[in-house]
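1st attempt posting a full record on here, be nice pls
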Amino acid sequence: MNNYQNPYYHQNQAQGYQPSAVQTDGALSWDDEIQQENSFVILPAGDYRFEILKLEKAHYDGGEKIPSCPKAVVTFKVSTPDGAETEITENYLLHTKMEWKLCEFFSGVGMRNKGEKLRMRWTPELIGKTGICKVVVHKYKNRDGEDRETNRIEKLYPAYDMPALQSPAPTYQPPVQGYQPKKG
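the predicted structure (as C-alpha cells):
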C-alpha cells in the first residue's frame, strides 16, 4: 500500500510533520499519551462547598412553561470534606419566572444581600466565587432505558445565611521519636 492509499497518512508527515505535544483546547493528537480514567463521582445528597469553574452564555429555545430566553450555563466544582470532587453544571434561565433562582445564585456567591435589588453581572468575575450548596441525587433513564444517576444542585445557600459544614476528620500523626518538649 502506498501512502496515498493509507487513510491515516497525512501529507504533512512527508514534510517532517511533528505532532504537537500540547494542545491548548483539550484536543489530543493521534499519538498523544493518555492516562486519566473515568473520574465521574456521584456524591451522596448533602451540603457541600462549591467553586464556580466556568460560565457560558447560551440561549434556551423555550418549552411549555418558559418561552425562549437567554440562559447562563454554570459549571461548579463541588468538594467533600475528605477531598473528593465532582463537577455539576446547572442552567440559569434569564426569565421572570426564574427570578427566584437568579436571586438565589447571586446571593449564594455573595454578590447580593437579602431583599436587595441587583443588576445581574454575568462576567468573568464570577469564576472562582465560592459558597455552600445542597446537592441531590437525580435519578433518570437514559436513551436506552437504563437507570442512571447524576448530581444536581438543589439550592445555593445565601452568603449571609450559610450552614456550618463538617470539617474533615483530623488525621492522627504519631509523635516524633526522640522529641522532648523543652521545660521551662
